[in-house]
Amino acid sequence: MKRLSDDDVKAGLSSLKGWRREGDFVTKTFEFGEFMEGIEFVRRIAKVAERLDHHPDIHVRYTEVKLLIQTHSAGGITAKDFELAKAIQKVA
Predict the structure, then answer these.
(1) At 9, is the pLDDT very low, low, confident or very high (cuts 50, 70, 90)?
(2) Backbone angles phi, psi at 49, to 5 degrees
């Protein structure tokens, strides 16, 4: 899969509320009222990631869940990353 240009990444981010670019990743931090709410969110997005066969890096810190998405085999951001981010937004 081909890496996206900087302009394509900016365009993709414009359609995703709260997502941003950190280096070669598309990322967003979700905040929850309680620890277990964040864990349940991780369970829901794990199902989405498995269905799409594209898996984010997931960092859990008490009531925060940070997702970092990149196509590792391409060494950066591809259209597949935005497909996953949009699918995650639907379950968020």
Answers:
(1) very high
(2) -60, -40
Residues with Cβ < 8 Å from 84, sequence gap 6 or more? Answer: 48, 49, 52, 54, 56, 69
Residue 53 is predicted with a pLDDT of 95
The SS3 call for residue 55 is coil
Identify the CATH number of the domain in which residue 79 sits: 3.30.1360.20
Q: pLDDT, tens digit, for every residue of 70-85?
A: 999 999 999 999 999 9
| Residue 10 within a domain | yes
Q: Please return the burial class of 92, using the count of CB atoms within 10 Å of its CB with bins 0-12, 13-18 and 19+.
A: middle
Range of the domain at 37: 6-91
